[in-house]
Specification:
The chain has 53 helices and no strands.
Length: 865
């Protein structure tokens, strides 16, 4: 308690101390204010004396709030030095005008009118529309400046700020004549201010001026009248409609066109705004940027514009369709069941991408239609976010390409896009797919064919893994893919494989490495290639010769001659097989000397090479080699005589086979030679063997030889033999066609299209025997209408009873073009032979066939009547 009493006794002294401190603070503040004003005055004097030092002396020390706080000091300084224009030089005028606009009051209004009228009059005018006290000050100023120039000064101090025209008319009511005179002012701020006021004036002179404002040279005036003008009569509204349409299509200022569009939509929602088909390109450009997202009519117009080939129009149309979500719909709504719509949407989206509108492609992430993926693949191959390609690949990979041809199309489009346009992530995905799906030969070969040499650091390691896989089968595609990349990525690997011990890599791997090295055509690898040619079997060495032939010059000839004189039989044989492609005849002599070499590989290569060279001096000696004790030699000689021999060689083969004293081995060699002959006579000789009574082993060889005859001339020759064939030979020839497979069917169909009447029954007979017609009929139930159309047309071309069973079935196809083809086919039945077919079909076991046949008969009956 004692302590509390002691504290209370000290309280008066404490309060006295606080009072002294407060007084000191107040005194210090006033001293600071006085010193601050004195300093400001000194600096203003310095600015007045040297305006160029304004920033250094004044601006760096005083901000906008200081200019407001010390406004009186600035005014006094400006009055003392009117020649220096301190209000403007210091920037106080702009700060004060802004302050007035935010805090309207009479004191600041008067200050602006006195100190900054040239810049601040319009702001004074604006605050006068909101404050009666400010309006009184402004009205007084107008009375003191009663001429037209006063109002004009007000207008010219503005820059098109918006204001309440109705309130302004009240404020300027006594000066409306002056306002109307300002409509003709050459400076647009005057016309703009006058127009805003006259919009709310009922005088006829004002009304006329407003109509003329639709043609004012300044865009703000035109925009204002478009937005606010209201006609007085029905006729006026019609005229307003016409003016708005004119401005929407023809005005060169965007804001005016935008205002016209909004006014049309608001005031005339039920009137057609534009006749699109009559627009010029310029009018379309103006219109397409003012389309309404909610209007189906506008969307259709934008799509029609995007269908064109004008990029300038397409850009504006695509931007509108992008913003309205139509481009996304075009991408996600496609389906393979309507190819026409798919192609149309694809074309539209290509045009959009062509003008860099690609945002819609983001819809690919959620698109679940393979048709959408196909369209996206085509677009992304040109432009668009690269990161989307991996998403596309993941989607395409899920498709079973054997299920439908469309799925294969999607797969190929996606991976082609990735190979040609993908980023590193896409490349890594494709490389991984290649390795993981190396057994899917068609997919693998396709992807390899798409690689273009980019992203070598990603693709080459994967390609080398495939190269080292002895079971990989798509070798030609692999070779072609590798050589598209810079050889520095993999040359060391190739050389290591080629020169490695035999057991280190499978022989096929060494062959593959050698094939790639040869295709690179590196001059500094010539000796390596020549010495390792035996890696290739003789058949492949001959094919490889096309790469070896590109080496030329004395160095190549010299090294080849050295190898010919060497001891190694395999190296000599491989080189002999390859050099004819060089067409260098300096090699003929040493090759001729090799015909009786002890090494059978050398003898085989030499005989074949001389025939390739066309060395007639050696033909007789080569023929005798058909009796060589080694089968491989006989086989090689027979093939060479077949490929490069003339009719005399074919006759020689024929004589060998007829010779009862000739061995079976020689006869088999002769048949092999005939199988490789491109001459039609070889077909006649082989068919002659089928007629003869020959042993079964030789007959199987003849079947195989004839099955190799795949050219149209050779197949035509075979079909010709059908015409005169007895039942036994006919069956043998049909067996030949069966062994040929689909390749012969394609040629037979082409022969049918040539419409050779004498061959038609035999061709159709073969197609029936091989099951081709049944296969084609099954296509009539395919989901793709294009495949059904082709099948219907093909069956019409075949024209047999079996074919017309399918035609009758297709008569109710939902696709119009299929039905058109069916109708044309049925018209062919309006003949004697056709009627016989219909009569047979009337008794067909299938009730549907019988029903549709009766329908066809009715159509023919109607046509005949």
């Amino acid at each position: 308690m004692t302590e509390i009493v002691e504290q209370l006794t000290l309280l008066p002294d404490y309060l006295w101390g606080i009072g002294l401190v407060a007084a000191a603070v107040i005194i210090a503040f006033f001293i600071w204010m006085i010193a601050g004003r004195a300093l400001l005055k000194r600096r203003l004097l310095q600015v007045a004396e040297a305006p160029e030092k304004r920033d250094e002396v004044f601006t760096r020390h005083y901000g906008p709030s200081d200019l407001v706080k010390f406004a009186s000091t600035l005014e006094n300084a400006a009055q003392r030095r009117p020649d220096a224009d301190l209000i403007s030089v210091t920037g106080a005028d702009k700060v004060w005008i802004t302050h007035l606009s935010r805090h309207p009051n009479t004191r600041w209004t008067k200050r602006i009118l006195e100190c900054a009228p040239e810049k601040g009059l319009f702001t004074v005018f604006l605050v006068s529309l909101k404050s009666r006290k400010c309006a009184a000050v402004f009205t007084t100023w107008l009375k003191d400046n009663a001429d037209l120039l006063a109002l004009r000064k007000v207008a010219l101090s503005g820059r098109g700020e918006n204001f309440d025209g109705a309130q302004a008319r009240k404020l300027l009511y006594e000066r409306l004549d002056q306002v109307r005179e300002m409509v003709g002012d050459p400076l647009w701020p005057s016309r703009y201010m006058a127009l805003k006021v006259l919009l709310y004036d009922d005088d006829e002179r004002s009304y006329r001026a407003l109509w003329e404002a639709f043609h004012d040279p300044h865009s703000l005036v035109r925009r204002t009248v478009v937005q606010e003008f209201k006609p007085r009569e029905e006729k006026g509204w019609n005229s307003l409609y016409d003016e708005l349409v004119r401005l929407l299509t023809n005005d060169f200022v965007y804001e005016v066109r935008a205002a016209a569009k909004k006014r049309l939509s608001r005031e005339f929602p039920d009137r057609p705004h534009i006749q699109y088909n009559k627009l010029t390109k310029l009018q379309k450009l103006h219109l397409v940027e003012q389309l309404d997202r909610s209007s189906h009519e506008d969307r259709d117009f934008a799509i029609s514009v995007l269908e064109g080939k004008d990029d300038e129009l397409s850009l504006k149309a695509a931007r509108f369709l992008e913003e309205s979500g139509v481009l996304k719909q075009l991408l996600t709504s496609v389906d393979f069941s309507d190819r026409r719509a798919l192609e149309r949407n694809k074309t539209l989206l290509e045009h959009a991408v062509g003008v860099n509108q690609i945002g819609f492609l983001e819809a690919l992430y959620s698109a679940d239609s393979p048709a959408s993926w196909l369209v996206a693949a085509g677009l992304l191959s040109k432009k668009g976010p690269r990161e989307l390609i991996v998403s596309l690949l993941k989607k395409a990979e899920t498709l079973d390409t054997g299920q439908a041809p469309e799925y294969r199309e999607v797969f190929e489009a996606a991976f082609s896009c990735a190979c040609h346009s993908g980023n590193k992530d896409a490349a890594q995905y494709v490389a991984g797919f290649l390795l993981d799906h190396r057994g899917e030969t068609e997919k693998s070969a396709f992807i390899l064919g798409q690689l273009d040499g980019s992203h070598g650091e990603v693709y080459v390691p994967a390609l080398l893994k495939l190269l080292k896989d002895k079971d990989y089968t798509q070798l030609e595609a692999l070779y072609s893919a590798l050589i598209r990349y810079e050889s520095s990525f993999y040359l060391d690997d190739l050389l290591d494989i080629i020169t490695s011990d035999r057991g280190e890599y499978a022989h096929q791997v060494r062959i593959s490495a050698f094939q790639v090295l040869g295709r690179l055509q590196l001059p500094y690898c010539l000796q390596t290639i020549l010495e390792h040619l035996p890696i290739l079997p003789l058949e492949q060495a001959r094919e490889f010769a096309v790469h070896l032939a590109k080496y030329s010059g004395k160095t190549f000839v010299q090294r080849a001659q050295e190898i010919f004189a060497g001891e190694d039989g395999k190296v000599r044989a491989a080189l002999i097989a390859a050099v004819p492609e060089t067409e260098n005849k300096d090699f003929i002599k040493p090759i001729r000397e090799s015909l009786d070499d002890a090494d059978p590989d050398v003898r085989s290569a030499a005989a074949y090479a001389l025939l390739e060279y066309g060395d007639t001096r050696s033909v007789k000696e080569v023929r005798e080699m058909l009796r060589d004790p080694v089968e491989a030699v006989r086989s090689s000689v027979a093939r060479g005589l077949g490929e490069y021999g003339n009719d005399a060689s074919l006759t020689y083969f024929e004589d060998l086979c007829k010779d009862e004293n000739e061995t079976k081995a020689v006869k088999l060699a002769a048949v092999r030679g005939l199988s490789f002959s491109p001459r039609e006579k070889s077909v006649d000789i082989l068919v002659g063997y089928l007629k003869a009574d020959i042993e079964s082993e030789l007959q199987e060889q003849v079947y195989g030889a004839l099955a190799r005859k795949g050219s149209s001339k050779e197949i035509m020759a075979l079909v010709s033999h059908l015409k005169d064939a007895d039942h036994e030979l006919r069956e043998k020839l049909v067996h030949v066609f069966s062994k040929m497979g689909r390749e012969s069917e394609a040629v037979l169909v082409e022969l049918l299209r040539e419409d050779i009447a004498s061959l038609r029954p035999y061709i159709t007979s073969v197609l029936e025997e091989t099951g081709f017609i049944d296969h084609t009929i099954r296509k009539l139930s395919h989901r793709d209408p294009e495949i059904r159309r082709d099948a219907a047309e093909l069956l019409s071309l075949i024209g047999t009873t079996a074919a017309f069973r399918g035609i009758v079935l297709a008569s109710r196809d939902p696709d119009e073009q299929v039905r058109v083809r069916v109708t044309k086919a049925l018209e062919r039945l309006n003949s004697k032979s056709g009627n016989e077919i219909l009569q047979q079909l009337k008794e067909d076991p299938d009730p549907k066939i019988r029903k549709y046949t009766l329908w066809a008969l009715e159509r023919i009956k109607v046509k005949n009547s």
